[in-house]
Amino acid sequence: MARELLASDIPTGWTYDLLDRLATRGSGHTPSKSNPNYWNGGIKWISLSDSSKLDKGYVFETEKHISLEGLKNSSAVLLPAGTVVLVRDAGVGKSGIMAESMAVSQHFISWTCEGEGKDRLHNWFLYNWLQLNKKEFERQAIGSTIKTIGLPYFRKLKIAAPPIPEQRKIAKILQTWDRAIATTEKLIEASKQQKKALMQQLLTGKRRFGGFEGEWITGTLENFSDHIYGGGTPSRSNSEFWCGDIPWVTVKDLVAEKIKGAQEHITHTGLTNSSASLVASGTPILATRMAVGKVALASCEVAINQDLKAIRGSKQLDSSFLFYFLLSQAEKLQRMGTGSTVKGISVALVKSLEMTIPPDAEQQKKITKTLKNSDLKIEILNSKLSNLKTERAALMQQLLTGNRRVKVDQ
């Protein structure tokens, strides 16, 4: 349980009370799955399958639906639109607001903020308060396999809240930031789709730049690459091989399109006493095992492990052009992965990838410059999104604790 607030911690005019006294708490249920008449009806039913839809404000859709018969023959309850829900196990702390009347599974706690005289809490204020305290809910969860929060915790849960008009104003301010974040996320997604379309057109010659002539050359990646090589892992039992100054890249380091470092580093002794390979800056690196198809460009000198392959272009092939080609093949390579537990692709398969390249080096550079501009646009938008989220989090902390008060229009 979070620490009790002292009287001096409670802002002037705010209420500090049990959440149960300010809103009506409820829990959910799962109708019997052995009765098909209880399922696939017209009632949306929030379950753990909908985890990806939470923490985004309103919940509009659910993976599963139950019938009116399923509702009547179980402890499930049809909750009104605007009800706030919180996951209490297996993904503890995620929350959302029902956009329409829905039911929930037993993995959720719900709060209805209006009716039965309980109109002292605004649902959007509560939702943001739950978001603010998400880490605390995660800490409270216990269990060896599936972590959960028991009902006694929620019975004792207290909240500090201003009068309803101030709650509404706080919610409105934060929703303005939410809209800005959502708009930026949509712009990022649109820019990514535009870049994908550009790659399909530019890397195949379907779209040509003026001033360049000559037929494009078709061949395999083996024809146009100078060297394709893998890496290795120095012995973990020898401490002299580790904690050096050489970034040792694995699949877990392919988090962006440019590799600027790694989670682990090896020494020069570790490099020379293993099959780990040193890769020059500007070389494309492809995952052929684990996260098959992921590709990134080394922006500094790195070593790689056995799950990755470095591909060096020949005199005919610009390394950046090669990188964007591999990026365009990511989904295809992923589908080609084989293996019962860990998927992988062979070097022979990578070498057999068919590609068409312009004969003019300047034309390759013109294409990659256009694609790099697309990357820069996405990078700027991602930076803006990160700043918006950081600023919103700081503002939410101030507003929901009363450290920063809002002026309510009379």
Task: Describe this protein with a few key phrases.
410 residues, alpha+beta, Adenine-n6-DNA-methyltransferase TaqI, Chain A, domain 2, 2 domains, five-stranded mixed β-sheet, 12 helices, 21 strands, 21% strand, elongated
Strand order in the sheet with the most strands: 2-9-6-7-4
Question: What is the CATH topology of the largest domain?
Answer: Adenine-n6-DNA-methyltransferase TaqI, Chain A, domain 2
Number of strands: 21
Any guess at the CATH architecture of the largest domain? Answer: Alpha-Beta Complex
Structural class: alpha+beta
Q: Tell me the radius of gyration.
A: 28 Å
**Largest sheet entry:** 5 strands, mixed
Highest CATH level, the class of the largest domain: Alpha Beta
Give the amount of beta strand, in percent.
15-25%
Poorly predicted regions: none
CATH homologous superfamily designation of the largest domain: DNA methylase specificity domains
Shape: elongated
Cα separation of the termini = 37 Å
Number of domains: 2
Helix segment count?
Answer: 12
Helix amount, in percent? 25-40%
Average of the residue pLDDT scores:
93
